[in-house]
Amino acid sequence: MDQSKEKFAQLQELIDSHRNQPGALMPVLQGAQGIFGCVSEDVQKFIAEGLGVTLSEVYGVATFYAQFSLHPKGEYLISVCLGTACYVKGSQSVLDKLSEVLEIPVGGTTPDGRFTLEATRCLGACGLAPVMMINGEVYGRLTPDAVPGIIAKYKAKD
Amino acid sequence: MEIYRAHVLVCGGTGCSSSGSATLIERFNEKIAENGLEKEVKVIRTGCFGLCEAGPVVIVYPDGTFYSRVKPENVDEIVTEHLLKGRKVEHLVYTDHATHEQDANKALEDITFYKHQKRIALRNCGVIDPENIDEYLAMDGYKALEKALTKMTREEVIDEILKSGLRGRGGGGFPTGLKWKFTYNSVSDQKYVACNADEGDPGAFMDRSILEGDPHAIIEAMAIAGYAIGASEGYIYVRAEYPIAVKRLTVAIEQAREYGLLGDNIFGTDFSFNLFIRLGAGAFVCGEETALMHSIEGKRGEPTTRPPFPAVKGLFAKPTMLNNVETYANVAQIILHGADWYNSMGTEKSKGTKVFALGGKINNTGLVEVPMGTTLRTIIYDIGGGCPNGKKFKAVQTGGPSGGCLPESLLDTPVDYDNLIAAGSMMGSGGMIVMDEDNCMVDIARFYLDFIVDESCGKCTPCRVGTKRMLEILNRIVNGKGKEGDIEKLEELAKTIKSTALCGLGQTAPNPVLSTLHFFRDEYEAHIKEKRCPAHHCKALLQYVITDKCRGCTACARVCPAQAISGEVKKQHVIDPDKCLKCGACMEKCRFGAITKM
Question: Final residue of a domain: which of A41, A64, A87?
């Protein structure tokens, strides 16, 4: 509870620093996504009140952009690049293999909340295609065979 | 200022960072200190060198020795041999793809990959430390801004850009000078300049490389634009997915402010200019200018109809001039060297150079900048080194989701805005994805449509519903359920969407389908009529078969997840097509090349 209080205090600070600034909603939502890991209904209501805009406006923007999620994501976020260069070099089969190994569909989170699997568009590391990113760490020149080993490494962490 | 006898340039672009260049820098600094060379040798993290395939890339000056795919364990050798004893580490030197030589004495510009290039927009990428304004200043940085502010009138600046023939590098190819002029002509108490750095085209990463490698070039150009059109504020809208670019841009803006190159009374004139960064949040449609401005305003990034054009009513309902990153990257050079210098390069209607992001089935993945009018063949074969593993070239995709796929017969097309449109594709932002014989063109069209359906903002019906119907048909075709008449239906939908969608995203969305239908219609027909994928790519239409090369080693049967393979030891095995999942595991495992796709 205290933790959540602290987070809302942080959000309040963010809102205050953006008040009266044109176009404040986007940076505030981006900040909130960073603080909470998602923008749940409570957070959206808080922002709407804080910035003096309607909840529907906040919800409209939050659901428009891929960066904002309404539900929390897993501890490890796996993003497989489905940009053209990676796709042409077979990233779909890497994604399929991950889905099989983790037993979750693309966009899903494992029941233990450890892994979220996502397809993403172009990470800009086309020279390493096909690539995926796990919490900021990039794995390049992937094959489906390499997948179980990489996942096992993360599963072994506590 | 301290003088060093040698500089070690380590690429800190996204590609090389992903393959561990940060560790290299740490290691270099450690080893240099261990050997007491810290006063003699300086390590610099630069922007992208362009040849991502060879990453992480390290260049040692003054010799200009080009080391490629450097691993942390190689650093010791480079320090003790090259930097300490002056002996180049031959076995780590880049191997030229054309000559197969590992020539440590070859100058960078003589390497085949760089020989055909002319770097203007990328001039400082891989050359300077992007987080150090002094290095940019040493490369004639902010001289163009000084020239514009102190020696040129606003009209003269606009005339120079007009005369240079520079056209929008984001894809549309609208004459940049005209855009400046229109915004200049609008009367308002407040105007804005904006920079589109929401590079969403999958497979294009030139804007990112420029922002990461030479952020001051964008700041300088935007200030020049602000002076020309009469704006005191600018916004850079950059993808949140580009954290390195955002960081370097932030650092650069702070430094420019400290040096008085942004802020009030720049160069002692009455011109004041400030820049702000706004982060995108992952919406491809925000590359469209009206959508981008709505996003900066904190709204949903949906496009609106034009007119009114942004030059009249843009950001916060004020006249706004929006250019793409690569367009801005040319501006300071044009002001400094003159329009005549710039328009001496290129073709009749497309002047200067263009940066392309080469990717896909190509040997030298990376960024290349060539004069307009260079042929596709030169870019793909002479610079790119052709398709790897001896595979046959099939097509090159230009222009991203708005562009098309061009076949081998068009490889001698000189690349410029008009030629690409005439060929059935478009320049787009400059992504160039090469495909070989293993790529199915129907599946590629499906891939792009899938992207569009995902990214359509949903505001207008043709784009929201039309592209979805097209995707359904394409999904059907690649799954072996295509019907007579599907091709005609695709064409009809494409025509309607092109002529009725609200914005550029929708209007160009059918292009990948139309161009593949035009050049690779036989592949569509094979899928529909013969239920066959000529590239052996579409899973639903292929079958794995074991030939008589099989030695009966049982490796395939053991690796098969579906137990679809049976047979006795040392005798030819067979695959049960009903059980086969078509995962391809058996084919990868077979050491005798006995398994083929049909």
Answer: A64
Please count the residue pairs, one from chain A and one from chain B, whose beta carbons lie less than 8 angstroms apart.
Answer: 130
Beta-bridge mates of residue B356:
B368
Residue A118 lies in a domain: yes
State the smallest CA–CA distance between residue B400 and chain A in angstroms: 8
Q: Tell me: the pLDDT tens digits for B112-138?
A: 999 999 999 999 999 999 999 999 999
Contact, B372 vs B419, CB < 8 A? Answer: no
Q: Answer yes or no: is the ipTM higher than 0.85.
A: yes
The answer to whether B242 faces chain A, any CB pair under 8 Å, is yes
Chain A residues in contact with B298 by the CB 8 A cut-off are 22-27, 61
The answer to whether the beta carbons of residues A47 and A75 sit under 8 Å apart is no
Do A122 and A60 share a structural domain? no
| Segments forming the whole domain that contains residue B447 | 441-529
Q: Is residue A129 part of a domain?
A: yes
Is residue B159 located within the same domain as residue B301? yes
**Pairing between β-strand B274-279 and β-strand B233-238 as defined by DSSP bridges:** parallel
What is the SS3 string spanning B80-130? HHHHHHCCCCHHHECCCCCCCCCCCCCCHHHCHHHHCCCCCCCCCCCCCCC
Residue-range definition of the domain harbouring residue A40: 2-64
| Residue given tokens 């006898």 in the structure block | B5
Tally of domains in chain B: 5
Q: What percent of chain B has pLDDT over 90?
A: 86
SS3 B442: helix
Test B53 with A140 for CB contact under 8 angstroms.
no
Rounded-to-integer distance, Cα B85 and Cα B224, Å: 47
pTM of the model: 0.92
Q: What is the domain-level CATH number for residue A152?
A: 3.40.30.10
**Min Cα–Cα distance to chain A from B37, Å:** 32
| Helices B486-500 & B521-529 angle (0-180, nearest 10) | 130
Distance CA B243, CA B249 (A): 10
| Same structural domain, B338 and B364 | no
Kindly state whether A77 is in contact with chain B, defined as any CB-CB distance less than 8 angstroms.
no
Mean pLDDT, rounded, of chain A:
92
